[in-house]
Amino acid sequence: MGDELQLFTNRYQRFRPEQGAPVRTTVGAPRFPLPYDLAGYARLLAPTYGMLKMAEGPYRHIYLERLEAAGVDLISEQLAEIADYAGSDQLVLLCFCDLSVPPPDNWCHRRMFAAWWEEQTGREVRELAERREPPAPTLFD
């Protein structure tokens, strides 16, 4: 993978085509119609079905072990193939998680991957989904 490839994360429902090439990172494909075509499937970034019902701690442990086992080189190769197919140097790694929900339910494998990738490569992986901001205080608060 060349240094020109940029990675971002988002959720399926908030992706817009001008953000880059959309890439599935989920075990299953969306069951709702997407208004865009997926550029590829990054299998190495997807959790397993068995992980889907896990709490964050065990999930994080297993997921990071899986990333380590695959390694940066193999993941880079897979992402480069998707980028070549899509003809884009910007890949947006997608999943279903809504990170705007309050803790403790606002964790997601796409952000676990982003943190791991940044640690391994020094390259930032920004989240593109809009986060809901708390309402601004009013005079009556």
TrEMBL record:
It comes from the Bacteria. This is DUF488 domain-containing protein. It comes from Micromonospora endophytica.
